[in-house]
Amino acid sequence: MATRAQPIADWRRPGPISPLGLGIATGLLALAAAAIGALISVAGRGSTGTGADIVHVAMFTAMQACLSALLSLALGLPVARACWRRASSWRAAWLVPFSFLPVVMPTTVAAAGLIAVWGQRGFVSEGLTFLGLDGLPPIYGLGAVLLAHVFFNAPLMLRVLYGALASIPAAQWRLSAQWGLSEWDRFRLVEWPVLRPVIPGLLALVFLLCFTSFSLILMLGGGPAVTTLEVNIYTALRFDFDMALAGKLALVQLVICGLVVIMLTRLTGRSWAATPRSVSAALEQSGEATWRCRITDGGALALFVIITMLPVIAILARGAGPHLFTVTSWPAFHQSAITSVLIAIASGSVATGLALVLASARTRRTAAALSVWPLDLSISLYLSVSAIVLGTGLFILLRSVADVFVLAPLLVMLGNMLIALPFAYRILTGRLAALAATHDRLCAGLGLRGWRRLRLVTLPAITQELGFAAGLSAALSLGDMTIVALFGSQQFQTLPWLLYQTMARYRAGEAAALSLWLLGLTFLLFLAFTLAARILRRRRHA
To answer: In terms of pTM, does the model score above 0.90?
Structure first.
């Protein structure tokens, strides 16, 4: 409590967290600037790539990202409406929480699951062959890439759009039911006004995620005909050692992603991590009980389950075979598993710590009416500077002063941390802003500032969000293969890289077992952070 009289207006002062946050933001901006500067320094030199080739690859990358975003919306929107209309049914109540599953699933595991379902020797082909029909052709190509992107992003669309529908006031649903609005009028007058502000930003975010997709293109693209800027950068750097071409490609990608990020910041949308904590009971509307509406909703839900759940089931079914324990005898398995877990814990913890400082600084500076754009810019920049672009810049920057392959563990940890940082920052920013709005004046009246306020008020209030951010960051780090693809070697490899190499050798059984191990470790790590946060929170409140 306050020990002496002091002006209550002091609660607006940003405190020491503000310069600390600005210092970290400056470091992040300097790191990105150094990587971009290294790319610019080599991009002007001669290379084997022509301008027409680069334009062709850039256009194909943008085209597949556009198609992926639109297809994800085409599936996610009807499923979100069906889940909202059937919110009381067990199917909808089960699907919405499931929508978070692909967010933490490693891309290498998802690719293995898609091959196990839709591949030439997958479940579907085996079923067709059993019925005396021809099996499916090879999955690799543009269709497989689009299917994989829909697998990851349709659940994201469902989660956000369902939250938007849940935000419609109950009074509007009652009026709609009383007036007996038709299906089209209800969508046009009640649902579209809340969906319209969300969809553009959501499409831009999904476009960005698909534009910078690396592992899925590498594993499912099937060759040079289906390649993107990210894969071309990797090929130019790792196989052709053409740093000038890698620099040009990285700069082209950086410019396009930067434009999308600017658009994304202007199209403020609902956080993908946000889930309505309480959903009001849905009122039955005119026409929802008809067979036509039931069949339409059932078809949308069934298609969603087929696309997003069958690969997970396939991983569980094929991974739990005789090779599940065989792979544990590989020395490479132990080395890569321990390396992956240690890097994931370290990068997840560091990302959460930095996000906490930056989000706290943003909250305090907002209360003091100071500009926050340096903090936001330092985070948003890493949405446009993808892992492969950052890794290429660091490779060019460090190769003349150090052995990059010796520094590989640190570089992978740094890259994975920066990948997770925007997500952790966004999770904590919203919670800290809400906490400041309700507790700032009270804490000022009690004389709680600085470390005392952080220890007694802030940390107990955001423990759950901290655990979620750390678990998500660690899960993203454990499943990422981008940076290790550049700096990995026989002496240093992670579990996703070992899985990719095993699949490349056509060892399907061992690859399925590794997928199951990687999936299990990812969820265990995510649950460990989130459960630890819940236990800590309960002890504080006990």
So the answer is: no
